[in-house]
Amino acid sequence: MKTKKHAHWMRTAALLSALILTVTLTACKKEAAQPPKTPDPAPTEQTTPGQTTPPGQTTPPGQPGQTTPGQTGQGGEAAKPPAEAPIKMGQLQYSELERTTVATTAKTASVPTYYLPERGASDDKIDQMGTSAKLLTLKYYKMTIMESPEEIKPSGKVESKQEVKLNNGTGQWITADGKATLHLKLDKTYIALSSDKLSQADLQTVAESLANLK
Predict the structure, then answer these.
(1) Per-residue pLDDT averaged across 85-101, rounded?
(2) How many other CB atoms are found less than 10 A from the CB of residue 134?
(3) Nearest of 134, 87, 153, 143 to residue 116 by alpha carbon
(4) What is the Cα–Cα distance from 203 to 191, expressed in whole angstroms?
(5) How many angstroms separate the CA atoms of 7 and 13, rounded?
(6) Distances in whole angstroms, Cα of residue 211 to Cα of each of 115, 117, 150, 157, 214
(7) Three-state secondary-structure class, residue 105
(8) pTM value?
């Protein structure tokens, strides 16, 4: 009997030892299978409310920021507008309707002999026509021409007069109230040319190309 009991206890002890070993090995495997823990990320730099510079980037000391349209640039200088393209002189074209309308308007203004320039700014055209007592006014986009059977006197205080030789006669630059106007006479018609766009040399070219239309 003692031998049987002893053998029974021996088997029980062996089973308990095996069970303990199994549990221990299982726990070790689970621990090995878990991934290593990563360290917590370092705190990022916080920006002040309203800050436009991305985190981590700063504007170098003394460097000016970007300016919006209308603001002055470096040194307080205002932005300069783009320069206008130079005016090209060329042949002027008139439609039959324009010629007929000018003839009717000249007749209304009592200007029997009137002239139209054959040269001017290449893209220029007649914009408006007007009449008053014996005065025909042709307003182009870049110049104004007045014609009359009577002398055209400058409006305003005359500041200077300068004679100029033209291919078709003698003209005179008269400056009144800071504005220069080229005056000349062709046959019996007095003509005055002025422009805020054309130079004096270009306006003299216009005057020399005046063609007689009856």
Answers:
(1) 92
(2) 14
(3) 143
(4) 13
(5) 10
(6) 5, 6, 19, 31, 10
(7) helix
(8) 0.62
